[in-house]
Structure formats: structure tokens, C-alpha cells
């Protein structure tokens, strides 16, 4: 289906027009006594004043031949007409290779050089009325009302048929045909005749009125009727394509320009951009021009032009792809729409025409609630996404300014004016159009379900459009961009996030993925939607990505307090710790760190004490912890004193007071005291293959004792470790504070205190006799004041699950073994302690003598052993002593042998040196003097 030609009024003259002719790139316009040469391609204009009235002008061998109203021929060389001697010419006919001169009763050929001359003249049987030429055949209409064919090659005249009314002959050049017109009561009839045989061809054409002017421009036939109607027929199908009334133009005649005439391009008015408001739709576009405007910078081609009585010239422009597409779209059926879109695919994708066609088609589908089909066209048009969003006021509330607008073509604006401005009104109007009055949208369930389905489809369409636009913008986004684009990005991303939140029940992960990528979501707009649909985790991440850590923490606080829930949250405690580690304000960190301690003391203390970004004054934090949680205060003191080794006396004393207070407070409970005493008694009955401290801490992993007792054991272990690692405490005050329990339960602690006071005998008496802790007693002899070795202390810390700060402090503590004499002295004291009850501690005595034989003097130790001690119990000690004595003897023998060997080696080396030096004989001085005296 072909869209009609459009008219372009491209020039106006001030005088009536009687000649229109296309020569090279110029249009020749002839009026009363002027010729105008207008070239729009080269933007030139020339005017020739004449002393005669031109009637006809033709091109011949790059020259122009002109006929005036008096029948005189002129040769137009350049812009200077030269008058010839040829007279009485009625008409000029132009074939492909010559010009034929028609006179009243003869026909001849025109010769141009050296001057205009008529040759090969043939007489005519009747006077001439009208004629046309096709190659070398002329169709004539004479005063006998007969059409005839004259073959110039053989000079044969063939009469054809009679005619009524004014004759009209048109050459159909590309088909070797003539169209001859005859009039009747209904108007006029056109008959196609073969130009060589004179036989009729095809069917006749019926015209509703007489003919004023007719031209052929393949493949169309343009006919101007007397009633000022233009009819366009196809010379292929011989059918009427379009009929157009030109009464308002007062048309005179038509003229063809076979090679195409370049004229200013006519820009369709519907392509002009206007400002379309997004909120206020009461805008009148009637002031916009209803006529197309001409662009002098762009040209288009025409092959048929029209002259009017008013002196204006119009061009018939073949329908462009844009015109054809819009014409098809206006039919509003699927087949026509597909044809229009197929035509549009041949246009550049970034052209205004392609944008217009796809947006026009999308809006038509949108208006008919074909949302899924409209979605792809909206995306392909790449229209301003705010235009689509304007139909969804529930999403855009607060996003658009009251006077916000988008730039769209006028034709699109006019189309939108006929579409309801909200999606709800659009769907309701469509349903009422189809179902009212039989069904009601509000009350009838089937229609209500259809309404809900259409609303869902509209939302899906919007989601698809927004998603595609978001991806397109993300790919095309540069390092810097205009503020308007950034603003559009914010609107786009905000609406996308809202829709993802709405569709949480269908695709919950979509919002999470969108939030995790870079976005421009407007938080104040999106927050109510996220809250409405329970997407608190996504809202928290959004706050975090926008740098508002405090609001993100508030949300996770509510998760932990269980005032809100979100299935996307797996470990809110871990998340809030991560957020707190990003806080840079000390007050905010302190506020939420103290709150976190109430839910997870270790995590809260870790955040407050070891923050990677923000530090809190230790004194302020201690004071705040004291008001919040005493246990946390103690643990923070442990970090400061033990891990960070603060030398502050007040902190150390405060920690000691807490440790002592915890132990004393726990032992006031008779159940705990009883459990502690029972553990001592049980340990005494055990085979002594481990220390008392190791035995007690091992009980922590069993269910034999109550949780309260376990806490008391841990408190005792902390106090014990602190006392052992300290060196400058007021030991007497400590003993006084612990005195109510040091005689019964806190034996280990008392031993440490006595060791620090260098009361070794009393300390060993407690360890060896009261606790019967062989391992600890012997270790004490090597390291007085330290009842736990480093490895044993680490085992106890691990068994008790104490914090790492105790291990740090332990690693910093250096336990140096005492000198051998003092160690031997302490071992003798320990032995004396055992000897006091030798019959009870025989096994301990044997163990001590066996393991410490190296550090005990045999002669000093043996008298201390009671006589009734079984020999078997000291057998190992005596064997080791005897073995050691024998070992020393043999060692001395070996050393003597080694020394003798060394002496022999040195003697041999000296003898060799002496022999090499040679002998020196010297006389004794005394002998010489004696000889001299005898001689005298």
C-alpha cells in the first residue's frame, strides 16, 4: 500500500506562470515577459526580461529553444535569446534525439546549427489541435475530432478514433504507449494505444471530470481535473492510488521533471520538537505551525510540479520511508504495523525518523494495552524514560518537579494527548470501552481479575524498559556526564529499585543484585517502598553504599532486637560488627558498641577496643563499660593490662580488685565452696600424674560440676595467673583480702603469695602436704614464686577458654631458673616437708629422690632419710648417686688420658723443632777462669 504524494510549496512568483521547465539543475519559470532561472542545489537565481511573452521552452543539445505566443522560435544561448526566422509555430515536441516543430498544417524537424531551420516538413490533412511524441511516433488530434498516429520514419499517417470535447494526449514513454482522452457525460475516459500498431492496450481509465492537465512520470500518472482534483494512477496496475482536492491552491497545470528537480526539503511538522510537561498536561499545541517548513540546508527531489493561478509552485514529493511508515501505523492493524516497522528498519537507528516511528508504534500499542509488544518498541525508540514513567504516578511521586518536561516531537505530543495520563485510567477506560455497560470494573470479579492482570503486565513492561535503559546507560556512561543525565539516572534507578522491591515474592534476588552494583537510587523516595515490602537488608546496604552507616546500623540493631525480620539476613551480628568497623565517629561507635555488649560481650568489646578506624579514650571507655557491664569492664581491663601492658598502677590495681572480688564473691556461695573442697579431696585421692591446676581446669569440660562452679574456677585461674605474673603488688594486702578462704579452698593462691613473700617452706608445705601436688612442688623448687610452668599455664588457659590477652601476658613473662645452690636448698626443704610424714609420703619421697637426684647432695641427703624407710623406695636415688660417682671417676680417668696424649703431642712437636734448629756449643765461663788460675 502506497502513501499519497505530499505537496511542498517551495517558491512563489508575483506574476501568472505560463512556463515551467527543468534545465540542468535549474527550474525555468516563465511569466508575462520574464524568465527566472532558480537553482536550489547551487543556491543561485537569475532573471531575464523579455520583449515578448514566452509560451514554450525545450532543451536541445545543451541549448534552449523557446517559442513565444506569436509562434516565433528563439535560440537561447546562455541568457541571451536570439530570434530566428521561423514563424507560425504552434507547438514544439521533443523526442530523444530531435525537436519536432508543429505548425497549423505541417510538421517538420528542427535543425539547430548553424541557425534554427525546419527540415523534412510533412503536410497535415487537418488543422492541429494537440499532439504528443513517443520516440519517432507522433499522436495527433485535429479539427476533425480524430486521433491519428504519424510515424516520422515512414511518414505514414494512421487515423485511430474520434474524440469528444477538448483533446488530451500523453506519451507513456517507458511503455511505447499513448493515453488519449475523450469526454462523455460522466466526465472523461482515457484509452491506452500502442504507439506503433495503434491497438488499444489495458483497460480504459474513467475520470469524474474533464481533464485540465495530465503528465506521466513512471510509474505514476498525474491527472489534474477541471474540478481541481488531482488523481494519481499507477501505470503498472492501472488503478487509482490516490485522489486529492487542490481547490484551495487554484491549480493551473502540471509539469514533469524527468531527471528530478532539487528543491528545499519539507520537514514534516510532526517532527518538530516541543516541550511536553510530565505532570501538567493542559498544554495547547494549536499555536504550532500546521504547515511543514522548508529547510534550505537540505534538499529533496521531485519529478512533478504544479503551477497555480496565484503564482506559487508546488512539488509532488514521493512518499518517504517515514511517511509510508506513519501512514501504515495510522491504519492501526497488526499487518500494517509490521510493514511500517519493516520499512523503519532501513532507516539509521539513531535517526529522528526511526525514533519517531518506533515511539509512535509503541504508544499505539500502549494505548490499546498491548504492553508486552509495546515494551520492545519503547526500548528500541530509546525515548526519554521519564515519558514512560509519567503514566505511573505512584512510582514517580516526589521524583518529578512540578514544571518538569521532556522534549518530544509534536506528532508524538498530539498522540499522547489522546491517551489517558495514568496507567489506571488507561486500563479502566479500555475495559469500560470493551465491557461496559454489561460488566463493571469495580464490582464484577472477572473484569477485576482482568484489570489486575493488565496492571501486572504494565508493571512488567515498565520493568523491562527500565532494565534495558539502565543497561544501555551503564554501557554508555562516561567518566563525566551532564547533570541532566545524572538526574535521569537517579529517577531510572529509583523506580527500578521500587519495582524490584514490589516483586520480592517473585524474584527476591533481583533487588539484592541491583543494590550491590553501582546505582543512583534516591534514598528518601525508595525508603518507604523498601520498608513496605520488608526489604530491610537491601535498605541497609543502600544506606551503607550512600555512606550513611548510622542508618544501616539502626536497621541491623532492629534485626538483633527482633523487632523486624528479613529472610536475606543470615547473621545480623556479623553484619553490625562489619558496619561498626566502618564508623569514624567516636560517639557513634561508643553508643552502639555499648549496646552490642548487651547482646554479644566479646564482639562488642572487640569493636570498642580494637577498632581499625576510630579510637576511644581508654578512661572514657572504662567508665562507660563500668556503667553498662562490669564483666565487660573487667575484660577491657584485661586487654589494657595484660595484652597492651599498660603500666598504669590504677588500672592494674582495679583489675586485681576485680579478680579478687570475683573469687571471694563466688566462694561465699556454700555450694561453690563445697565443690572446690571436693575437688581438692578428689585430687588427693588421684594418682598424681598431673598438677592440681591441670586437674581442676580439665573438669571444666565435664558435667560433674555446676556452671557457677565452672565460672568460679575460671575466676580462680585468672587470679592465679595474674598473681604469678605480677611482681610489685602488696602481697600482704592480697593475703588479707583472701584470708577467709586461704586456709581451706584457695591453697594454690596462698602458695603463690607465700612464694612472692619468699616464704618457701610454707609455700612448699601447702603444695606438697595440703594439696599433694608433686609436679607443682618440684617446679616451685626450680622457679620459686611460680607454681605453674609456661606449658602448664598455656594448657590451663586453653582448657578454660580464656581470652588471648592472657596468652600474650604469659608470653611476656620470663621465668628464670634459680641458681643450683638455692634449688638444692629448696629441694631439701621439700624433702623435709615429706619427711615430716614419711609413712604417708613415701611415694612422694621416692619420686622426689628419683627425679631430683641430680640436684641433691648424696651425703647431705642420706642422713635425712628415716631409718625405717624401705630400701626399695630409695633404690633409684642411691643407684643414680652411685652411678653418678662412678661416672665422675671414669670421666676423670678419661680426662687424664686425654691430657697425657696432648702432652706427648706437644713434646713431639717441640723435639722436631729443636732438631731442625741444630746444636750450639758454648763454653762455661767458670771453667775458663779456673784454667787460667792454675796456669799462674
TrEMBL record:
- One GO BP annotation here? endosomal vesicle fusion
Alphabetized, the UniProt keywords read: Cytoplasm, Protein transport, Receptor, Transport
- UniProt entry tagged with the keyword Magnesium: no
Any one cellular component term from GO for this entry?
Answer: membrane
Q: What is its main location?
A: cytoplasm
Alphabetical list of InterPro entries matching this protein = CNH_dom (IPR001180), Vam6/VPS39/TRAP1 (IPR032914), VPS39/TGF_beta_rcpt-assoc_1 (IPR019452)
The organism's superkingdom is given as Eukaryota
Locate the CNH domain: which residues? 1-259
Q: Does the keyword Protein transport apply?
A: yes
Enumerate the subcellular locations listed in this protein's record, separating them with semicolons: Cytoplasm
Q: Name one Pfam family in it.
A: Vps39_1
Q: What is this protein called?
A: Transforming growth factor-beta receptor-associated protein 1-like protein
Originating organism: Wallemia ichthyophaga (strain EXF-994 / CBS 113033)
Amino acid at each position: 500500500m502506497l502513501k499519497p504524494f505530499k505537496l511542498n510549496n517551495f517558491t512563489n512568483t508575483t506574476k501568472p506562470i505560463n512556463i515551467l521547465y527543468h534545465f540542468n539543475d535549474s527550474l525555468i519559470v516563465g511569466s508575462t515577459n520574464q524568465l527566472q532561472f532558480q537553482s536550489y542545489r547551487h543556491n543561485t537565481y537569475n532573471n531575464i526580461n523579455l520583449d515578448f511573452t514566452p509560451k514554450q521552452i525545450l532543451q536541445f543539445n545543451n541549448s534552449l529553444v523557446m517559442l513565444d505566443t506569436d509562434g516565433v522560435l528563439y535560440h537561447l544561448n546562455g541568457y541571451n535569446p536570439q530570434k530566428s526566422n521561423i514563424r507560425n509555430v504552434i507547438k514544439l515536441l521533443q523526442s530523444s534525439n530531435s525537436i519536432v516543430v508543429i505548425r497549423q498544417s505541417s510538421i517538420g524537424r528542427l535543425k539547430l546549427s548553424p541557425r534554427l531551420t525546419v527540415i523534412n516538413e510533412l503536410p497535415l490533412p487537418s488543422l492541429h489541435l494537440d499532439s504528443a511524441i513517443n520516440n519517432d511516433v507522433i499522436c495527433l488530434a485535429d479539427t476533425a475530432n480524430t486521433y491519428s498516429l504519424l510515424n516520422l520514419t515512414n511518414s505514414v499517417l494512421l487515423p485511430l478514433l474520434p474524440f469528444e470535447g477538448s483533446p488530451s494526449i500523453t506519451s507513456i514513454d517507458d511503455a511505447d504507449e499513448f493515453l488519449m482522452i475523450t469526454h462523455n457525460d460522466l466526465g472523461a475516459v482515457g484509452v491506452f494505444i500502442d504507439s506503433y500498431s495503434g491497438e488499444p492496450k489495458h483497460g480504459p481509465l474513467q475520470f469524474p471530470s474533464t481533464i485540465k492537465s495530465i503528465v506521466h512520470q513512471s510509474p505514476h500518472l498525474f491527472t489534474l481535473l477541471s474540478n481541481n482534483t488531482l488523481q494519481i494512477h499507477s501505470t503498472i496496475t492501472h488503478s487509482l492510488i490516490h485522489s486529492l482536492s487542490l481547490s484551495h491552491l487554484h491549480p493551473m497545470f502540471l509539469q514533469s521533471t524527468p531527471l528530478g528537480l532539487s528543491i528545499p526539503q519539507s520537514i514534516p511538522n510532526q517532527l518538530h520538537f516541543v516541550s511536553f510537561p510530565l505532570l501538567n498536561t493542559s498544554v495547547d499545541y494549536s499555536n504550532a505551525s500546521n504547515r511543514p517548513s522548508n529547510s534550505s540546508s537540505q534538499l529533496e527531489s521531485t519529478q512533478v510540479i504544479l503551477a497555480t493561478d496565484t503564482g506559487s509552485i508546488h512539488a509532488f514529493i514521493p512518499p518517504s520511508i517515514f511517511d509510508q511508515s506513519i501512514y501504515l501505523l495510522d491504519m492501526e492493524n497488526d499487518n500494517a504495523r509490521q510493514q511500517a516497522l519493516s520499512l523503519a528498519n532501513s532507516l539509521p537507528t539513531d535517526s529522528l525518523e526511526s525514533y519517531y516511528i518506533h515511539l509512535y508504534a509503541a504508544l499505539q500499542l500502549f494505548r490499546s494495552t498491548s504492553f508486552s509488544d509495546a515494551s520492545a518498541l519503547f526500548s528500541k525508540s530509546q525515548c526519554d524514560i521519564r515519558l514512560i514513567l509519567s503514566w505511573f504516578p505512584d512510582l514517580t511521586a516526589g521524583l518529578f518537579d512540578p514544571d518538569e518536561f521532556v522534549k518530544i516531537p509534536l506528532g508524538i505530543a498530539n498522540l499522547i494527548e489522546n491517551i489517558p495520563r495514568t496507567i489506571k485510567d488507561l486500563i479502566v477506560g479500555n475495559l469500560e470501552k470493551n465491557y461496559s455497560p454489561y460488566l463493571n470494573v469495580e464490582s464484577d470479579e472477572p473484569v477485576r481479575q482482568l484489570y489486575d492482570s493488565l496492571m501486572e503486565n504494565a508493571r512488567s513492561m515498565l520493568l523491562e524498559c527500565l532494565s534495558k535503559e539502565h543497561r544501555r546507560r551503564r554501557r554508555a556512561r562516561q567518566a563525566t556526564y551532564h547533570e541532566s543525565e545524572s538526574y535521569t539516572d537517579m529517577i531510572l534507578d529509583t523506580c527500578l529499585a521500587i519495582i524490584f522491591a514490589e516483586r520480592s515474592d517473585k524474584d527476591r534476588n533481583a533487588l539484592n543484585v541491583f543494590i550491590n552494583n553501582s546505582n543512583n537510587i534516591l534514598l528518601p523516595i525508595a525508603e518507604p517502598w523498601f520498608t513496605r515490602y520488608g526489604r530491610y537488608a537491601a535498605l541497609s546496604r543502600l544506606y551503607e553504599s550512600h555512606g550513611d552507616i548510622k542508618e544501616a546500623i539502626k536497621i541491623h540493631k532492629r534485626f538483633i532486637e527482633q523487632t523486624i525480620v528479613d529472610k536475606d539476613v543470615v547473621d545480623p551480628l556479623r553484619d553490625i560488627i562489619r558496619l561498626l568497623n566502618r564508623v569514624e565517629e567516636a560517639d557513634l561507635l561508643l553508643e552502639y558498641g555499648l549496646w552490642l555488649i548487651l547482646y554479644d560481650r566479646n564482639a562488642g568489646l572487640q569493636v570498642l577496643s580494637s577498632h581499625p578506624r576510630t579510637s576511644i579514650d581508654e578512661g572514657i571507655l572504662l567508665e562507660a563499660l563500668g556503667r553498662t557491664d562490669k564483666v565487660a569492664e573487667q575484660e577491657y581491663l584485661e586487654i589494657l593490662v595484660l595484652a597492651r601492658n599498660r603500666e598504669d598502677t590504677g588500672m592494674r590495681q582495679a583489675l586485681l580488685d576485680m579478680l579478687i572480688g570475683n573469687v571471694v564473691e563466688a566462694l561465699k556461695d556454700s555450694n561453690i565452696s563445697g565443690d572446690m573442697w571436693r575437688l581438692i579431696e578428689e585430687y588427693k585421692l588421684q594418682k598424681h600424674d598431673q598438677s592440681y591446676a591441670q586437674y581442676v581446669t580439665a573438669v571444666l569440660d565435664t558435667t560433674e560440676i555446676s556452671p557457677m562452679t565452672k565460672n568460679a574456677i575460671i575466676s580462680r585461674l585468672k587470679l592465679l595467673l595474674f598473681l604469678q605474673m605480677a611482681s610489685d603488688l602488696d602481697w600482704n594486702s592480697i593475703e588479707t583480702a583472701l584470708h577467709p578462704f586461704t586456709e581451706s579452698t584457695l591453697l594454690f593462691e596462698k602458695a603463690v603469695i607465700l612464694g612472692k613473700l619468699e616464704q618457701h617452706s610454707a609455700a612448699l608445705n601447702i603444695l606438697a602436704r595440703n594439696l599433694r601436688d608433686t609436679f607443682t612442688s618440684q617446679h616451685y623448687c626450680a622457679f620459686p614464686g611460680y607454681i605453674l610452668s609456661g606449658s602448664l599455664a598455656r594448657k590451663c588457659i586453653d582448657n578454660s577458654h580464656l581470652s588471648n590477652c592472657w596468652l600474650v601476658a604469659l608470653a611476656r613473662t620470663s621465668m628464670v631458673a634459680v641458681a643450683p645452690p638455692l634449688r638444692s636448698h629448696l629441694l631439701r626443704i621439700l624433702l623435709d616437708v615429706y619427711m615430716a610424714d614419711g609413712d604417708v609420703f613415701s611415694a612422694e619421697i621416692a619420686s622426689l629422690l628419683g627425679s631430683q637426684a641430680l640436684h641433691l647432695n648424696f651425703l647431705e641427703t642420706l642422713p635425712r632419710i628415716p631409718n625405717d624407710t624401705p630400701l626399695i623406695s630409695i633404690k633409684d636415688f642411691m643407684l643414680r648417686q652411685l652411678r653418678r660417682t662412678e661416672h665422675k671417676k671414669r670421666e676423670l680417668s678419661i680426662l687424664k688420658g686425654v691430657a697425657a696424649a696432648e702432652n706427648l703431642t706437644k713434646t713431639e712437636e717441640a723435639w722436631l723443632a729443636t732438631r731442625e734448629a741444630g746444636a750450639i756449643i758454648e763454653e762455661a765461663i767458670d771453667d775458663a777462669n779456673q784454667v787460667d788460675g792454675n796456669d799462674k
